[in-house]
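Dear colleagues,

I hope this message finds you well. In preparation for our joint manuscript, I am sending the Hypoxanthine phosphoribosyltransferase (Macrococcus armenti) sequence together with its predicted structure, so that both groups work from identical material. I would be grateful if you could confirm receipt.
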Amino acid sequence: MHNDIKSTVLTSEQIQETCKRLGQEITKDYDGKNPLCIGILKGSILFMADLIKNIDTHVELEFMDVSSYHGGTESTGEVKILKDLDVSVEGRDLIIIEDILETGTTLNAIVDLLKYRKAKSIEIVTLLDKPMRRKVEIEAKYVGEKIPDEFVVGYGLDYQERYRNLPYIGLLKEEVYTK
Ligand code: XMP
Ligand code: MG
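The corresponding C-alpha cells are as follows:
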C-alpha cells in the first residue's frame, strides 16, 4: 500500500468484480443499441477502461471535461465545460461514466445539457456513490459501491492531482492534508 494511504475502501479485486457486474448489466440493457459512452475526465478514465472491457456489445467512446464553480467549499450548481464532445448526441442512447456521484450538481448540469441537445436516452454509471451528500435529485442507474461521506483517492480519483494511478481506492492519512 502507498505510504500516504491510511486504509483501503475498495481493493483492486473488488473493483474488477464491480466492473464485471456493471458490464454485464449494461450489455444486457444495451445489446444492439450502439450506445455512446461519455467518460467524464479525468477521474473516470481508469473505471471506463475496465468497465468497457466487460461490455459485450458495440459501444462508442467520447469524453467531456467539466469543472464545477465553487463558492467556498460548496458547489454553486454551475458547471463550466472545459472539453466538449466531438460528436452530436441527437437521437443517441448515452451512458455517462463517472468516478463518483456526490452532491449531483456536476452530473445534473451535464444531463440537462445533453437533454437540450436531444439525446434519445441518458443513463449514468458511477463507480462510487455518496448518497448522504446528495443536494439535487439525480440517481445513477448503475452504481458500483455506495460509500460513506469520506474523501477517497485512487483509481482515477485525486487529491491535488495525485493518487489517480493507485490501482485501488483508499483514504488518505490526515497528515497528507495538513502538509
Ligand atoms: P458532485 O458533488 O457534483 O461532485 O456530485 C462529483 C465530483 O466531485 C469530485 N469528488 C471527489 N473526488 N474524492 C475525489 O477525489 C472524493 O471523495 C470525491 N467526492 C467528490 C469528483 O471530481 C466528482 O466528479
Ligand atoms: Mg470528477
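For the figure legend, we might mention the following. The radius of gyration is 16 Å. The beta strands are 5-10, 36-41, 60-71, 74-83, 93-101, 121-129, 142-146, 152-153, 169-172.

With kind regards,
E.M.
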